[in-house]
Amino acid sequence: MTDNIAISVRDVSKKYRLFATPRHRLLEALHPFRKQYHKEFWALRNITFDLAKGRTLGIVGRNGSGKSSLLQILCAVLRPSMGEVTTEGRISALLELGAAFNPQFTGRDNVIFQGQLMGISNREMDSRMAQVEAFADIGEFIDQPVKTYSSGMFVRLAFAAAINVDPDILIVDEALAVGDAKFQRKCFQKFTDFQKAGKTIVLVTHSTELVTRHCDVALLLQEGAALAYGDPNDVCNQYNELLFGQALNGAEADTSGPARTSLTSPEPEMDNELDRFLKTTPEKDRCPTRRTYNRTERRFGSARARIIDYLVVRGGDFDPVIVRSGDTVDIYVKACYEKEVAAPTFGINVKTVDGVVVYGNSSVVSNLPIPPATAGEIRVFKFTLKLSLHSGHWFLGLGIGDRTTGETEMLDGRYDLIHFIVDEDAPFDGLADLQMSLSVVSRMSVPG
């Protein structure tokens, strides 16, 4: 390994033995002819890369792709089944925060003990204790048993103990967003300070925004194999294609062709996807065939009407997964009314990853009158939105209802139905652009 390389990984693989029951594990251990009762599961296969000193590596991948196993091998918590890992310098890992803490010990004792596990002397830990206390900000509880801590106090101290030991290599597994909002901001500031100090960082996250913004290089894992390694933007684009492609490949697509087109006319000639959407009606729910479909959507309603398809249109692009902040999109929604509905309504909302609704509207709020729907009728509604949103992942929900009684009865609510990404940074802070105007009203001189 050359002098400028902090981490060198060569053909690393990790195999686990999976037993159906504890009895099978015992039978294999005691069998005189070493009969195999387990199944082999390869969490990692032939991973190879070099990370230079002072660089930040972002690792992305779907759940179960091997990210956590790789981090544990880098930290020497796990040994690889095959291959070799070489590191240069002291490593601090933010994996399972506080895993080594003894609930009977005080916070101070646990911090010192964790330093000893990392090979740091008591004298050095004593010199760093003031930094740990200031960062954790738990006051006099630092000298109380950890078992008396709240969950928030616990993770604050665990993070502070791991981050304030001046490591050469920092390894982080989704641990930057701990504690309340102010503490999270402090964590990200510490992360930035480490980068400015020339530390080597390995970060596992599901946030492509975090990777493209803060990482110098990225690694994409899928089923234990390295699919891509290099420029963060290129790797994250491949990750998004992999992530959104699962919805299309795993969905039960409607391959039977259109069941109904027009009640009187023959099959129309269709120029593009929008024409096809407007002029045909599928027998099955076609939403799962869309690239932007979210398989973990939540759905409820009386089912007197059903949302059977949608289409997102941005200019000449149909069903785009990635959009830019400020783009205007048209969202077409197709609903099938199973029974007569006297006062139909429809609505939409936009949410963040953690479920914060940043916008919602409906035909009721907009005072848009809608004629009654008859049984068997197909209707298409259209929403036009200017996506003045910050970069990141966003979810869009759709719903149709009935206000015959004066209260809205949900006929079909599909929450978080659409998942899209705003890829480029917007020229504002916060979640959404409120179209602020700024001007100087007056200027005056102070007397005297």
* Beta content: 25-35%
Number of helices: 9
Query: Which sheet architecture does the biggest sheet show?
Result: 6 strands, mixed
What spatial form do the alpha-carbon principal axes imply?
Answer: globular
Structure report:
Helices cover about 25% and strands about 30% of the residues. It has helices at about 20-30, 65-75, 105-115, 120-135, 150-165, 180-195, 210-215, 230-250, 275-280, and strands spanning about 5-20, 40-50, 55-60, 80-85, 90-95, 170-175, 200-205, 215-220, 225-230, 300, 305-315, 315-320, 320-325, 330-335, 345-350, 355-360, 380-385, 390-400, 410-420. The chain folds into two domains: about 5-245, P-loop containing nucleotide triphosphate hydrolases (Rossmann fold, 3-Layer(aba) Sandwich), CATH 3.40.50; about 255-265 and about 270-420, Distorted Sandwich (Coagulation Factor XIII, Chain A, domain 1), CATH 2.70.50.60. A hairpin with a 2-residue loop joins strand 8 and strand 9 (about 225-230). It is globular and about 75 Å long. The protein has about 450 residues and is of the alpha/beta class. Mean pLDDT is about 85; it is low at about 245-270. It contains nine helices and 19 strands. Helix 3 (about 105-115) runs parallel beside helix 5 (about 150-165). Strands 5-6-7-3-8-9 form a six-stranded mixed beta sheet, with helices on both faces. The longest helix is centred in the middle third of the chain and has 19 residues, at about 230-250.
Short description, anyone?
With 448 residues, this protein is α/β, with parallel strands linked by helices. The protein has 2 domains: 5-243, Rossmann fold (3-Layer(aba) Sandwich), CATH 3.40.50.300; 256-264 and 271-422, abc- transporter (atp binding component) like domain (Coagulation Factor XIII, Chain A, domain 1, Distorted Sandwich). Helix 3 (107-117) crosses helix 4 (122-136).
